[in-house]
């Protein structure tokens, strides 16, 4: 801990400062890591009863800086009182993570083995930010260096020639095994396919507008369902089991003329029927009946309509566990209309954010090293999702290079970790710490609870009781002003707090 205070709170030794955090002119700093050094959060124990822990990251360069304080019997007199209401109970958290794309794997493996271990530890170990989820693309996507599927032999309806790719066997699988070995708990993997083999599709290509030939229940749809089972079987040979599957990445993309990369079109109606007639029964009768199936895996603004079409059909709904969605275009429709409405219509199906990245929009494209705005975008979206019944949030590529690739269609974006293999270093972006403020503290089974405010505030807040009976508050201050507040917990009294301008804060205390 002392080392971290030194880095961020003192300029006495500028050489240490320059070595460990760098500014690239995008508003804040990145943390520089190599094979021998990386700032780690470390393990977060609970403070003594009556004490609280505070972790703050800010635009000025604090990164999970820890401090301890004491609950007080009497109000601090702060104008803003945040009251914890543990009797108001909402959804339970599943967890947080990122995606092991071909590009992410290539970037991680471009480092020396010591730096690779360091990077994986940052995400998965108890000293790191303890990701629990990894999204795994089935075959190629735009973040691949070539186009392929696992069954590219035309007419192979029985999938006799189904084979994993070099990218799986030599890159993704060994890294997933290493990540699992570092993690204190089993990782929850979930798979998403971008496109079916070209010979199964109406357009005869992996890209562009196209869907499966024939109709749900027909041989192409049956083969595509069997492809999922074969994927699970092959990964199983490497001792990797999957927590879940999505019914396919961005089904609306394959409905768009001239779509530029891998896609497979479904309407909510055809997705419903394919699940009811093919994927659902096939998964149910396979060796993997417990695998959770998430529908949609596309933009949030398609809700609640997409869920209504699929889940109002009993034959399809019986095979479905959750609804996955992406963060793109989220600002168009408020979360209450999409997420909370969907939750109230179908409370037994969990909501799960399956993809998000910064730097995707043409107006603000690619990597921005040290961007604090993007850290705030992440934290804002996560809080908004969680406050609207979402149970988890998955980032996109775990690591990219300084171009924001490789990506075969040059669809370059940003990532919480950017690799510079020429120097054998990687940069932990502000967005990495945004993720940490949630993933490190909100254990699986944590339950969101009620919170109220004594007056209107610009702070964005989400509150939880964890399985160990501790309380967690995450607070985002996107304003230019520091905000003084107090938290009132009836069992303990008043917690005196302050959220610096442009900061993310996690508060933690035991309620036993």
From TrEMBL:
GO terms for molecular function: beta-glucosidase activity; galactosylceramidase activity; glucosylceramidase activity; glucosyltransferase activity; signaling receptor binding. It catalyses: beta-D-glucosyl-N-octanoylsphing-4E-enine + cholesterol = N-octanoylsphing-4-enine + cholesteryl 3-beta-D-glucoside; cholesteryl 3-beta-D-glucoside + H2O = cholesterol + D-glucose; beta-D-glucosyl-(1<->1)-N-octadecanoylsphing-4-enine + cholesterol = cholesteryl 3-beta-D-glucoside + N-octadecanoylsphing-4-enine; 1-(beta-D-galactosyl)-N-dodecanoylsphing-4-enine + cholesterol = cholesteryl 3-beta-D-galactoside + N-dodecanoylsphing-4-enine. Pathway: Sphingolipid metabolism; Steroid metabolism; cholesterol metabolism; Lipid metabolism. GO terms for cellular component: lysosomal membrane. It is found in: Lysosome membrane. Residues 93-442 form the Glycosyl hydrolase family 30 TIM-barrel domain. Keywords: Glycosidase, Hydrolase, Lipid metabolism, Signal, Sphingolipid metabolism. GO terms for biological process: autophagy; cholesterol metabolic process; glucosylceramide catabolic process; lysosome organization; negative regulation of macromolecule metabolic process; protein catabolic process; regulation of macroautophagy; regulation of membrane potential. Residues 445-507 form the Glycosyl hydrolase family 30 beta sandwich domain. It comes from the Eukaryota. Its EC number is 3.2.1.45. It is an enzyme of class 3 (hydrolase). Pfam families: Glyco_hydro_30, Glyco_hydro_30C. The keyword Membrane does not apply. It is a peripheral membrane protein. Belongs to the glycosyl hydrolase 30 family. This is Glucosylceramidase. It comes from Cyprinus carpio carpio.
